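Deliverable D5.2: sample structural annotation.
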Amino acid sequence: MDHRPSRRRPLLAAALLGPLALVALTGCGGAAPAATPPPHVAETSAAPVPAPAAPSASPSPAAALPASAPVRVRIASAGVDASPVLELGLASDGSVQVPSVADGDKIGWYTKGVTPGETGPAVLIGHFDTARGPAVLRNVSRVHTGDEIRVTRADGTEAVFRVRELEQVDKKEFPTAKVYGDTPRPELRVITCGGEITDGHRPDNIILYADLVG
């Protein structure tokens, strides 16, 4: 699979997928153990979590990097250190692919968009839980604005992002344009599931928005 998708493809994907672009993420949940707490993140409009020497929520943007596929993703605040990174495209029904249940411990990169560090919104997707139990993003609720997401790339460079916003939305109201629409600087989205299990699935998506800072 091509590691260098055409530029501006996220808008095309958004147009094809419509507001239910990430509905395929219903793989989160199912028969997961009841002991797994429901994932939930506070909106960024809520009071910020106090932290010493907290970085600005709007850091100075770093220069864009050339195309290079992601091979490792680390989110220290959520205990994530995932490698290798899966390649995700579009399913036969036009929805965005998600990692399989067997790959619940991995994060996938949406290859129809840019690579992390390029100008535009790079998109990573991972499960909160599956029918087998807690998955790679099981601790997403521990992430706060200002936290770092570090992405090692195939060319040996590392793209460092800082979380600017966290959002939890009903999958039926998925913000397609906000997630996949063009941006003038390098940005990152990390998407998983959220909410209490309803009819065997988690009804929400949790989205982390982050900016390249190094």
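Annotation notes: Residues 9-35+61-212 form a domain with the Sortase; Chain: A; fold (CATH 2.40.260.10). The first strand starts at residue 70 and ends at 75.
The annotation will be released with the project's public dataset once the embargo ends.
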